[in-house]
C-alpha cells in the first residue's frame, strides 16, 4: 500500500510465503499488480515482470495521450475564444457601419422560418424597431401586387430545390 501511495504509476509484484486467498486478495486490493509465492519460480517471475512492463507501457502511453489531449483542448479553447472575440468585434463594426449608412436589412432563415428586420429597414418602411414584429407575413404583405405572384413562384421553386440560387429584384 505504501509503495502504491508514494509511487502510483509503478507496478508492484508481491512475493509472499503465505499462500492463502485472503493474503492474495488483500494484496490486489492494496494495489499490487500480482503476487508470487515463495520459493520464486524464475519462469513465473519473468512472465509476471513482462506483463507488468506491458501494462506500464500502456499506462505511460495513456498518460502521454491524456496530457497531449489536455494541451490540445486548452489550445482549442484559446482558439475558440480568440475567434469569438474577433467575430464579436467584426459584428460590432458591421452593425455600426450598417447603422451609419442607414442600410435596411432583412434576413429569412428558411430552415426555421425565423425572420429578422433591422431597425433601419423598419424605419424605412415607416415603423419604429418595436413597432413591427419579425414575421414573414410582415414582409410578404409589403410585396408590390404586380411582383407578388412571380416572386412567390420563384421563391417556392428555390425552397423546393428547383434552383440552386435564388436572386430576385422587386419593388
The H-and-E topology, N to C, reads as HEHEHEEHHH
Strand proportion, as a percent range, falls in: 5-15%
Largest sheet: 2 strands, parallel
Using only C-alpha atoms, the radius of gyration works out to 36 Å
User: Segments where pLDDT lies below 50 for 5+ residues?
Assistant: none
Count of helical stretches: 6
**How far from one another are the termini?**
83 Å
Residues in helices, as a percent range: 55-70%
Mean pLDDT: 89
Question: By helix and strand content, what is the structural category?
Answer: mainly alpha
Shape designation: rod-shaped
Q: How many β-strand stretches?
A: 4
Sheet with the most strands: spatial strand order: 1-2
Which descriptors would you attach to this protein?
mainly alpha, two-stranded antiparallel ribbon, 171 residues, 58% helix, 4 strands, two-stranded parallel ribbon
Summarize the structure.
The protein has 171 residues and is mainly α. It has helices at residues 2-6, 21-29, 42-101, 119-124, 136-140, 145-159; strands at 13-16, 34-37, 106-108, 115-117.
Task: Please give the structural blueprint.
Blueprint: H1 2-6, E1 13-16, H2 21-29, E2 34-37, H3 42-101, E3 106-108, E4 115-117, H4 119-124, H5 136-140, H6 145-159
Parallel strand pairs: 1-2
Antiparallel strand pairs: 3-4
Amino acid at each position: 500500500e505504501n509503495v502504491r501511495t508514494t509511487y502510483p504509476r509503478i507496478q508492484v509484484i508481491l512475493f509472499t510465503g503465505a499462500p492463502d486467498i485472503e493474503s492474495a486478495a488483500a494484496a490486489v486490493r492494496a494495489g499490487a499488480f500480482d503476487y508470487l509465492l515463495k520459493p520464486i519460480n524464475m519462469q513465473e517471475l519473468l512472465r509476471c515482470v513482462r506483463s507488468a512492463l506491458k501494462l506500464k507501457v500502456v499506462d505511460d502511453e495513456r498518460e502521454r495521450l491524456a496530457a497531449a489531449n489536455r494541451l490540445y483542448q486548452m489550445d482549442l479553447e484559446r482558439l475558440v475564444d480568440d475567434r469569438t472575440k474577433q467575430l464579436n468585434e467584426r459584428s460590432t463594426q458591421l452593425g455600426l457601419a450598417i447603422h451609419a449608412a442607414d442600410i435596411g436589412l432583412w434576413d429569412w432563415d428558411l430552415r426555421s422560418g425565423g425572420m429578422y428586420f433591422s431597425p433601419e429597414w423598419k424605419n424605412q418602411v415607416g415603423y419604429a424597431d418595436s413597432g413591427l414584429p419579425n414575421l414573414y407575413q410582415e414582409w410578404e404583405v409589403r410585396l408590390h401586387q404586380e411582383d407578388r405572384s412571380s416572386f412567390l413562384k420563384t421563391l417556392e421553386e428555390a425552397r423546393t430545390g428547383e434552383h440552386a440560387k435564388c436572386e430576385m429584384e422587386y419593388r
